[in-house]
Amino acid sequence: MSEESNFTGILPSSSEKLGYNADNSIYQENDYTTVFHVHMPKLDRFYVPVILGSCESLGEWNKENPKVFLRNVNNSTLWVSDPVL
Question: What's an example of a GO molecular-function annotation for this chain (predicted)?
Fold first, then answer.
């Protein structure tokens, strides 16, 4: 059995809006969330990094009103977002 066949019906193709989870429950495209993890140097306290993108949940590339902000984790180089739908 190939790796691809293990995921048949679990992950949507680019044209699917509905599919099945591993437990055969139906999911919809908006059932997924993403958490961004970024490594970069700590910034001056007046700067907060953001994630921009071409979809509504990422702000439609609007630099004036970003939707996804990153927060620094324990004074490290790791920055993390809240879950994004």
Answer: carbohydrate binding
pLDDT in tens, 46-62: 889 999 999 999 999 99
Domain ranges of the chain: 1-29, 33-85
Query: 62: Cβ–Cβ under 8 A, 6 or more apart, which residues?
Result: 52
- Interacting residues of 7 by C-beta distance below 8 A, sequence separation 6+: none
| pTM tops 0.85, yes or no | no
Structure tokens at 78: 């790791």
Phi, psi (rounded to 5 degrees) for 51: -110, 130
- In contact, 41 and 77? CB cutoff 8 Å: yes
